Amino acid sequence: MVEWLAQQLALLGQSLWPQPSAVPLSILQADERQLVIQGNAAVFCFDARQRCVRVGTRRKAAFDDIRCVIVRHHRDSDDRPEHWSVTLQVRGFLADVHLGWSQDDVDASILGARLARFLGKPVRAW
């Protein structure tokens, strides 16, 4: 339980104060059954048959629990360059799934649109 809470707090910190990563957001595989995304910290598998999002063997969210795909703009600051993050807003306390961030607004927008179409959910841009 303590390990899970520490992991959730680390993810919350990454969401609140994201650091651009050397690993870019990208689509590794896309077909009608599966969408595989290279996130900044993990590979996310969106499975249409099982209607869930997985990282490895761990289930991160069910499609029915995902409310929307959020593409958020983070302004330039003294210690961080301007970047865009992509997150799945999921029902539940601290349940959002942060996929990653990109310094390219087009990459983040395309990824958000592809995810929304695959999931059948809206995109929200902030």
Describe this structure in words.
The protein has 126 residues and is α+β, with helices and mostly antiparallel strands. The protein contains two helices and nine strands, in the order H-E-E-E-E-E-E-E-E-H-E. The strands form two sheets. Strands 1-2-3-4-5 form a five-stranded antiparallel β-sheet, with helices on one face. A hairpin with a 6-residue loop joins strand 7 and strand 8 (97-102). It starts with a helix and ends with a strand.
Quick rundown:
The chain has 126 residues and is an alpha+beta fold. The chain is built from two helices and nine strands. Strand 4 (52-55) and strand 5 form a beta hairpin.
Bulk shape: globular
Structural class: alpha+beta
CATH architecture: Roll
Question: Which spans have pLDDT < 50 for at least 5 consecutive residues?
Answer: none
Ends distance: 33 Å
Mean pLDDT, rounded to whole units?
88
The largest sheet is: 5 strands, antiparallel
Number of domains: 1
Rg from C-alpha positions?
14 Å
Instruction: Tell me the strand order in the biggest sheet.
Output: 1-2-3-4-5
CATH names the topology as PH-domain like
The helix tally amounts to 2
Strand content: 35-45%
**Count of strand segments:** 9
CATH class: Mainly Beta
**H/E series:** HEEEEEEEEHE
- Helical content stands at 10-25%
